[in-house]
Design goal:
The structure holds two protein chains of two kinds.
Chain A lengths: L3 E12 L2 E12 L3 E5 L6 H8 L7 E6 L2 E2 L5 H4 L2 E4 L11 H9 L7 H10 L13 H13 L5 E5 L7 H16 L3 E6 L2 H5 L4 E6 L2 E7 H5 L4 E6 L3 H8 L2 E6 L2 E6 L3 H8 L6 E6 L2 H9 L1
Parallel strand pairs in A: 3-8, 3-9, 6-7, 7-8
Antiparallel strand pairs in A: 1-2, 1-4, 4-5, 9-10, 11-13, 11-14, 12-13
Helix pairs in contact in A: 4-5
Chain B lengths: L1 H33 L2 H13 L2 H6 L10 H34 L3 H6 L4 H34 L4 H9 L1 H16 L8 H21 L17 H7 L4 H24 L4
The chains are: A alpha/beta, B mainly alpha.
């Protein structure tokens, strides 16, 4: 038994000469909700597909509950739930048909949880899968990923195609499941989506994890907006050497990661007309990491 | 999974089996009107025009076209062999590959089932339908022959199961090749090509002694109809080779598919 349900060490995946992921290492603690954040093409889906055994890794190691992950092991697979970014199911089946089919692969009775989820997500089981909208298909995918109550739930862009109400319902369901002990890997390119949900977060860029920390630490990573209005603004700019978000006449908005006392010491020698310190938005933080 | 696979592949089985049954209904219905005394004479005269090698290639040198059973032993079974060959090959190409082509493999792979079990289920369904097609035709033609007149029952029953010995290798070879492909788009063409290449190699090997060696490169050699007609028994060498090829390529499929990147 390990502290971590999923541990990825130095994962590298190349498709011929093109890069899938270059160097991904992450640790997903049991009972955690981990936000896996990155822009399109950063390597999120490749990482997930490697974990799911759909593609073969070039190098690196993946551990599930302390053991080397063996995706051919039925017992391990039954402990994982997976929602791919693009859901492709058997078009000839009805929603009820795919749920019954899914159930047939599990030894335990999972019909009760299935019925609860169907009710929560307001799914019409009589519909044919080929007639479903993208959003409704996503809802079916969510039920399929959750109905067997997996220990590890892997969600790749789960809210794409869902309306805001359904997004909120999904988040409520995930929080409930997490309270019951389910560990969740939540991949998204929308940082604000995961901020209310995730305890830990990993940023991936060009196939490399560039930052991994708790949401709390990332938020207090000393990044603030610092707006200064002064006639000495040019001197202040030179002195602080901070990244500028916007500027207007004598007023400049900096992205600041300087210690507040150091900052005040430096500003002490200037005549300041206006000083405003604000919390940085997640989206700007996101952009900062990806510059 | 097995239940679903049988259901999904049932339609194609019904279509292809029906094609052959309709053809045989047609032949059994019109043959008595073709084979009248004057026509038989004309037919015999016409046969003399063909070179002996050509008659041999279609087993016409050892069968008489004067009866519908005679026709069945030569041309009739050629049709069956071609259709069973194509059906088996086409199914072999598509049965696994369509999961990747339609991207449903991502869902299937997320289920608690081993890849080798996915392959096993598909193989069971494929082989069952091939055997079922051959047996359905066998029973149908047997009933029709019983109604048409006298024939060698044992010889017919042995003949009627020979397509299995080409169907299974066609299925296994195509299944193996499909593990190197990503899309089902060209599989219809490849299946047709494979069937006709093997068929032509077999016919060519019968036409001239110089190219007899070609028969060792054709799956159709394994349906040794000539042996069944002349000796009223199935050539055991062909059965063994057929099973060996099938086992070999199915084994290769398991190895390759277990390592395959599926998305």
């Amino acid at each position: 038994m390990s502290k971590y349900i999923l541990e990825i060490k130095k994962l590298k995946k190349y498709y011929g000469k093109s890069r899938g992921v270059e160097d991904v290492s992450l640790k997903l603690e049991k009972g955690n909700i981990y936000g896996f954040i990155g822009p399109n093409g950063a390597g999120k889906s490749t990482t997930i597909r490697t974990v799911m055994g759909l593609v073969n890794k070039t190098s690196g190691e993946i551990y599930f509950d302390g053991e080397i992950l063996d995706t051919s092991d039925i017992n391990t697979k039954s402990k994982i739930g997976y929602l791919p970014s693009e859901i492709n199911l058997y078009d000839d089946m009805t929603v009820k048909g795919i749920f019954d089919y899914h159930e047939s692969f599990y030894d335990k009775d999972i019909s009760e949880r299935r019925n609860e989820l169907v009710k929560l997500l307001k799914i019409n089981e009589d519909m044919k899968l080929e007639d479903l909208s993208l959003g409704n298909l996503k809802k079916v995918g969510i039920v399929l990923a959750l109905m067997h109550e997996p220990e590890l739930l892997i969600l790749d862009e789960p809210t794409s195609g869902l309306d805001p109400i359904m997004q909120s319902t999904l988040h409520d369901i995930l929080l409930q499941e997490n309270k019951k002990g389910m560990t969740i890997l939540y991949s998204s390119h929308v940082l604000s989506e995961v901020s209310s949900l995730c305890k830990d977060i990993g940023f991936i860029k060009d196939g490399v994890i560039i930052k991994e920390d708790s949401m709390e630490n990332i938020m207090k990573d000393n990044y603030t907006y610092l707006t200064i209005s002064s006639k000495d603004i040019n001197k202040i700019k030179k002195d602080l050497k901070l990244e500028i978000k916007s500027e207007n006449d004598n007023e400049v908005k900096f992205i600041n990661n300087m210690d507040i006392n150091e900052l005040l010491n430096k500003l002490n020698k200037y005549k300041i007309d206006k000083l405003l310190i604000e919390t940085i938005s997640l989206e700007d933080l996101f952009n900062k990491y990806y510059k | 999974m097995l239940k679903r696979e049988f259901k999904v592949n049932l339609k194609s089985f019904i279509i292809w089996t029906s094609v052959l049954i309709i053809m045989f209904i047609f032949v059994f219905s019109i043959y008595p009107f073709i084979v009248v005394d004057d026509n038989i004479k004309n037919f015999d005269e016409m046969m003399k025009v063909f070179p002996p090698e050509m008659l041999k290639a279609f087993n016409m040198d050892i069968t008489s076209m004067n009866t519908v059973y005679g026709w069945l032993k030569s041309e009739g079974f050629m049709f069956v062999l071609l259709v069973v060959g194509f059906y088996s090959s086409f199914m072999g190409f598509n049965i696994l590959l369509k999961e990747e082509d339609e991207k449903t493999i991502e869902y299937l792979e997320s289920l608690p089932i081993k890849r080798s079990n996915i392959v096993t289920n598909k193989i069971i369904v494929g082989i069952t339908y091939i055997i079922l097609m051959v047996l359905t035709l066998s029973v149908f033609n047997y009933i029709c022959l019983c109604l048409s007149g006298d024939f060698n029952h044992k010889q017919y029953l042995l003949l009627s199961i020979t397509p299995i010995f080409i169907g299974l290798p066609f299925f296994a070879i195509s299944l193996f090749i499909s593990t190197f492909l990503r899309k089902t788009k060209k599989t219809m063409g490849i299946s047709l090509g494979l069937v006709f290449i093997f068929y032509i190699l077999n016919i060519l090997s019968e036409l001239a002694k110089d190219v007899e060696i070609l028969k060792y490169f054709s799956i159709y050699t394994l349906a040794d109809i000539r042996h069944v007609i002349t000796k009223v028994s199935i050539n055991p060498v062909c059965v063994i080779i057929s099973i060996l090829i099938t086992v070999l390529f199915i084994g290769g499929t398991y190895i390759k598919y277990n390592k395959k990147e599926l998305v």
